[in-house]
């Protein structure tokens, strides 16, 4: 049985989790502004980064609570996980609105093309 005083803890990834959450949120906001150039590219990229940050943060916070990871980056990891969660929910809203706008444009184009002489 190993002595708990000599137990080696995993290094925390707080900066990675925070970076993923922040970059996901920034890409999502920029994607909303640059919607006409690449409508679905930025929200999908932000969604992937947000899901990665959320899952890394959840894993690291559980490891910190269990005592198997260095807890010095707890607050930064928690902030990164929160940023990732906000970004994922914002991405889902943006993707839903983009899908509705695309379907509306297709329906309007179809409707008006049927009535054209």
Walk me through the structure.
With 117 residues, the protein is an all-alpha fold. It has one domain. It has three helices and no strands. The longest helix has 41 residues.
Mean pLDDT: 88
List segments where confidence is low: pLDDT < 50 over at least 5 consecutive residues.
Answer: none
Name the overall outline: rod-shaped
Radius of gyration, in angstroms, nearest whole number:
21 Å
Number of domains: 1
Number of helices: 3
| Number of beta-strand segments | 0
Kindly report how far apart the N and C termini lie: 85 Å
Q: Which sequence of SSEs, written as H and E, runs from N to C?
A: HHH
- The proportion of residues forming helix, as a percent range, comes to over 70%
Provide a quick synopsis of the model.
This protein has helices at residues 14-33, 41-66, 74-114. The protein is mainly α and 117 residues long. The termini are far apart.
């Amino acid at each position: 049985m190993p002595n708990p005083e000599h137990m080696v803890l995993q290094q925390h990834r707080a900066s990675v989790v925070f970076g993923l959450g922040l970059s996901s949120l920034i890409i999502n906001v920029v994607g909303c502004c640059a919607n006409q150039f690449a409508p679905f590219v930025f929200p999908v990229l932000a969604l992937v980064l947000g899901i990665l940050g959320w899952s890394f943060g959840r894993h690291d916070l559980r490891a910190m609570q269990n005592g198997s990871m260095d807890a010095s980056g707890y607050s930064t990891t928690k902030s990164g996980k929160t940023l990732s969660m906000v970004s994922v929910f914002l991405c889902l809203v943006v993707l839903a609105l983009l899908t509705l706008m695309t379907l509306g444009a297709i329906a309007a184009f179809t409707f008006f093309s049927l009535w054209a002489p």
